[in-house]
Amino acid sequence: MIFKGELRPLETVLVGLLLAVIVFFLLQWGIAGVIHARRTQTMPELKGRSISAALDQLAPLNIGLRKEGQEFNNTVAIGSVLRQYPPAGTVVREGKIVRVVVSQGGESVLSPAIVGLPLRNAEMLLRQNQLVLGEVNEAYSLRFEKGVVLSQEPKAESSVERAAMVNVTVSGGQPPAGVLLMPDFLRKNVREAQSWANAAGVSLGEKKDMTSPFPYGTILSQSLPADAVLSVDERVSVVISGKVGKPGEAGLAVKNFHYEVPQGSAESLVRIVVSDKYGDRELFNGLRRPGSKIDLPIQETGGAQVKIFLNGILVDERNL
C-alpha cells in the first residue's frame, strides 16, 4: 500500500534526473555567460620574440602561453618563438592559451682540422662534416707545399652552424726572390735563428725564460708566426730557455708516445699535436692505413697534452 505523499522508486529516479538536467543547463548557461562576458582579443604576432617578450606582450591581453617544443632553425634566433597556434590575427577571447614552438638556433657541427691537407682533400672533409668551402686565399710558405691548407677560419674544433662556410689560405709554395718569410724556430736551438738572422740581415732580439724545463737555448716562442712576411729592417725577437744545466745533470725526460690507427676500410689522415704552456706543436701529419702504429718521442715538460685528430676530427686527448 502506498500512502498519499509518498513517491514510488521510479518517480524518485525521474525527479532526480529532472533536477540534474535543470542543474546542468543552469551551469552551462552560467559558464556560457561568463565566457561570453570575456572580451575578445586579436592574437598578436609572436614569431621572433623571446619567451619573456612574448609573455609581456600577451599579459595585457589576458592571454596565456605554453611552450610545446623546440626545433633547429637557421633564421630565427635561439630562444625565440618559431611558430604559434592560434596564428597571429586570430580573434580569441581572454583566457585563451597560445601554444608556441621555440627555436634552438642553427644546428651546430664542429669545424674539422684541415690545416696540412691538400685543398681538394680539405674540401671533401668539409663536405663530410656538412660544411662548405668558402673563400680561398693564397700565401707563400716555407712549411707547406703548394696547394696545401695553411690556415682556416673558423678554427678547428669550433662550433659552427651546419652548412657554414670555412675560409682557407693555401700555400703558394716557396717565396720568390725578394720575399722574406719568418721560419718556424719553435723548439729549435737559438743558434739556428741567429744564423738565419745574420744571413737575412734581420735584427734578432733574445729574452730568457729561467723557469723553462727545456735545455738552454731552446726557442720557446717567437714574435712573428711562421710564414709571416717580414718587412725591410723588421726586428724579430725570440724567447729562449735560460736553464743552465749542471755538469752531469740529465736533460728533459723523453717519453715514447704510441698510437694505433683504428681498424677500418680506408686510410685515415692522422694529425698529432702536443700542447703545453708554450703553445701547440705538430708532431705528426700524414695518411696511415688501419692498424698502423705510430711511435713518437716526446719531451716531458709537465702539464703537456697530446691531441690526436683523425680526418680532421679530435678523437683522443692524453696527458703526458
Structure description:
This protein is of the alpha+beta class and 320 residues long. The protein has 4 domains: 40-103, Trypsin Inhibitor V, Chain A, CATH 3.30.10; 108-171, Trypsin Inhibitor V, Chain A (2-Layer Sandwich); 190-241, Trypsin Inhibitor V, Chain A, CATH 3.30.10; 254-319, Immunoglobulin-like. Helices cover 18% and strands 36% of the residues. The protein is built from 4 helices and 19 strands. The protein has helices at residues 9-37, 51-58, 119-128, 190-200, and strands at 40-42, 64-71, 81-85, 91-93, 97-103, 108-110, 132-139, 149-153, 159-161, 165-171, 203-209, 219-222, 235-241, 254-260, 268-276, 279-288, 293-299, 305-310, 313-319. A 4-stranded antiparallel sheet has the order 16-15-18-19, with no helix packed on it. The protein has a 3-stranded mixed sheet with strand order 2-5-3, covered by helices on one side. The longest helix is centred in the N-terminal third of the chain and has 29 residues, at 9-37.
Strands, helices and their partners?
Elements: H1 9-37, E1 40-42, H2 51-58, E2 64-71, E3 81-85, E4 91-93, E5 97-103, E6 108-110, H3 119-128, E7 132-139, E8 149-153, E9 159-161, E10 165-171, H4 190-200, E11 203-209, E12 219-222, E13 235-241, E14 254-260, E15 268-276, E16 279-288, E17 293-299, E18 305-310, E19 313-319
Parallel strand pairs: 2-5, 7-10, 11-13
Antiparallel strand pairs: 1-4, 3-5, 6-9, 8-10, 12-13, 14-17, 15-16, 15-18, 18-19
